[in-house]
């Protein structure tokens, strides 16, 4: 394996010294980039990009080629590959987001769900990881990812995106045992899926708990965090002679950072609703922090973006343990020039905090 030429992302996740604060953007390969839209048109649709390792590799590399400041690559795929591999039949309706042909609604549906084998059932993802690693050739580390069990369950039970998670929450409160069986099967699936990605070459992994923050405090502990803790305890933590850091990102989880920091991960992802300096005081002795600029700041002018980057860096303060990111994914309407201004500002303004 080629040695990493730029490892400041991995170093910051382990709170080792860095020269500048590393940065990447959630959804960095996506519709705001004209080159991404061209690749998607060539492939036909979004899932064809994900399922063809050459296409997945091509779009993963696009933001890196455009922005030399990016300190990490993220596998181009989707969190819904797991429910698809469980037999639900994922498809995307243009402009309407993800949909499933088969929706999960009863205990019998859950009992019938298989645990996907990463090689046999999700081999296209494993192939994408190894193809991207080869293409990166040590340029920056590659991040693998999965959805959290709770977040995956919401899509599986609702049949797609939802505003209020009516069906999923009704199942949680009416039939907690059925929900626990579903979450347990998902935790097993996610653990072997992420371990498969690590063995194929992912150098860090992130668990996206996009909808955990929509639960009550008690339900979050029991139905989301408990399963992420279980996954973290089953992950391969060292590979190719290096630590493989784990990042947990619960969107809207700011109230529960102390308990999330106890789940065994190396780093927590923060959305923009919390102050990163305050988060550091609360949990910075246990974990590194990733985040947390409001992605809509990218609609403002480059000077305003730069000022907001400066404010977040100052709030975190001196020393390692911070990976700069947006607090959620970059949106399709963002001007790519503004994303560039954001990335440059992070490196330019952060050197002073690493002397
Ligand atoms: O960060 C990256 O660049 C890696 C790629 C990535 C995608 N999805 C590509 C994608 C990652 C990490 C995801 C994760 C994902 N997928 C999450 C968790 C992160 C989050 O945003 O909270 C969720 C909830 C999904 C499910 C999903 N996939 C939805 C709800 C949608 C439709 C909404 C939308 O933005 O259109 C997708 C589609 C999707 N996944 C796109 C991309 C680039 C857009 C599809 C397209 O090109 O039309």
TrEMBL record:
Its EC number is 4.1.1.37. One of its GO terms (biological process) is protoporphyrinogen IX biosynthetic process from glutamate. The keyword Cytoplasm applies. Residues 22-31, 143-159 form the Uroporphyrinogen decarboxylase (URO-D) domain. The record marks 78 as: Transition state stabilizer. It is found in: Cytoplasm. Substrate binds at residues 27-31, 78, 155, 210, 328. One of its GO terms (cellular component) is cytosol. PROSITE patterns: UROD_1, UROD_2. HAMAP family: URO_D (MF_00218). PANTHER family: METHYLTETRAHYDROFOLATE:HOMOCYSTEINE METHYLTRANSFERASE RELATED, UROPORPHYRINOGEN DECARBOXYLASE. Homodimer. Catalyzes the decarboxylation of four acetate groups of uroporphyrinogen-III to yield coproporphyrinogen-III. This is Uroporphyrinogen decarboxylase. It comes from Pseudomonas kilonensis. The gene is hemE.
């Amino acid at each position: 394996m080629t040695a990493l030429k730029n490892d400041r992302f991995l170093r910051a996740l382990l709170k080792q010294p860095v020269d500048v604060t590393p940065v990447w953007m959630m959804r960095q390969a996506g519709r705001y980039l004209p080159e991404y839209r061209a690749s998607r048109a060539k492939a036909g649709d979004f899932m064809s990009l994900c399922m063809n390792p050459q296409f997945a590799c091509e779009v993963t590399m696009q933001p890196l080629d455009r922005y030399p400041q990016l300190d990490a690559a993220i596998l181009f795929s989707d969190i819904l590959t797991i429910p698809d591999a469980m037999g639900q039949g994922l498809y995307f309706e243009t402009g309407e987001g993800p949909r499933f042909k088969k929706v999960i609604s009863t205990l019998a549906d859950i009992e019938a769900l298989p645990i996907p084998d990463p090689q046999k059932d999700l081999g296209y993802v494993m192939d994408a990881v190894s193809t991207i690693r080869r293409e990166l050739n040590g340029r920056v580390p590659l991040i693998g990812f999965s959805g959290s069990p709770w977040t995956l369950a919401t899509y599986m039970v609702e049949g797609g995106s939802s505003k209020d998670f009516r069906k999923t929450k009704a199942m949680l409160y009416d039939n907690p045992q059925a929900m626990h069986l579903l979450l347990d099967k998902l935790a097993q699936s996610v653990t072997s899926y992420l371990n498969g990605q690590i063995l194929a070459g992912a150098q860090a992994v992130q668990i996206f708990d996009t909808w955990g923050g929509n639960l009550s405090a008690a339900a979050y502990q029991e139905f989301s965090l408990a399963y992420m803790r279980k996954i973290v305890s089953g992950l391969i933590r060292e590979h190719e002679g290096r630590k493989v850091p784990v990042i947990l990102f619960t969107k809207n989880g700011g109230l529960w950072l102390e308990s999330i920091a106890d789940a065994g991960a190396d780093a927590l992802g923060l959305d923009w609703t919390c102050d990163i300096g305050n988060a550091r005081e609360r949990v910075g002795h246990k974990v590194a922090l990733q985040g947390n600029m409001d992605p809509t700041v990218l609609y403002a002018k480059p000077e305003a973006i730069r000022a907001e980057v400066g404010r977040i860096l100052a709030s975190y303060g001196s020393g390692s343990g911070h990976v700069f990111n947006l607090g959620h994914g970059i949106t399709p309407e963002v001007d790519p020039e503004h994303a560039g201004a954001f990335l440059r500002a992070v490196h330019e303004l952060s050197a002073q905090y690493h002397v």
